[in-house]
Amino acid sequence: xxxxxxxxxxxxxxxxxxxxxxxxxxxxxxxxxxxxxxxxxxxxxxxxxxxxxxxxxxxxxxxxxxxxxxxxxxxxxxxxxxxxxxxxxxxxxxxxxxxxxxxxxxxxxxxxxxxxxxxxxxxxxxxxxxxxxxxxxxxxxxxxxxxxxxxxxxxxxxxxxxxxxxxxxxxxxxxxxxxxxxxxxxxxxxxxxxxxxxxxxxxxxxxxxxxxxxxxxxxxxxxxxxxxxxxxxxxxxxxxxxxxxxxxxxxxxxxxxxxxxxxxxxxxxxxxxxxx
Length: 276
Description:
There is one protein chain. With 276 residues, the chain is α+β, with helices and mostly antiparallel strands. It has helices spanning 2-8, 15-22, 35-44, 49-52, 82-91, 129-142, 171-191, 241-254; strands spanning 98-110, 113-123, 147-153, 163-164, 202-205, 207-208, 215-219, 222-223, 231-232, 258-264. A six-stranded mixed beta sheet has the order 1-2-3-10-7-5. It has a two-stranded antiparallel sheet with strand order 4-6. Strand 1 (98-110) and strand 2 form a beta hairpin. Helix 7 packs antiparallel against helix 8. It is globular, with a radius of gyration of 19 Å.
């Protein structure tokens, strides 16, 4: 319906694009088709499978996956207290879990509306897929008006101490994300996962969990048949643990200035596939 369409296509419907379309300067013969329908069309046309299964890529490119920041860390502080989060997780049996609200907001969806809410980072060794799935179900469900995304630390740096790194669409930020993205897709080829994962955004956050001035990467593998809803792919259930930790280790070792790597655990809804 029209509301769903509005949520689905917001990345590309900026003012400049709308003006080009209204003046007849932009021709989009596939404008009414979504990603799954494009793939069906490719199969009907007899295109090679490696082309049909290529990862969907946002119109604005990797820029949509760089979360920028101002010098002030208070501008995006969550509308819920850390102590409230800690108490809730304790009462639900997550007694050894470290959880940290981040001063970062991402786009989500609930019903026919978009949300722009806080992100919760969690850390604990050897968490199973069932625990992760329960965690990502209960947290956004309970804190419906405050949190729409949960991410799980794959790297060793503690998540409780962090600093904000001023981030814009500069060459260094773009280079960090390109390098991390290349590492992930090379690993997907090596592990034979390109056809198993529907889409795999790699996101750059303006936070350092090590020395000041560094940034963080979030891995966002999802699977779906329609792209209207998506299921986050969890370690040990949907993707090999070794694959995810190989990606995280290579990013931390090979991409200069990256302090931590997270896995996005959140389905759509409540979180959109992309972060912005």
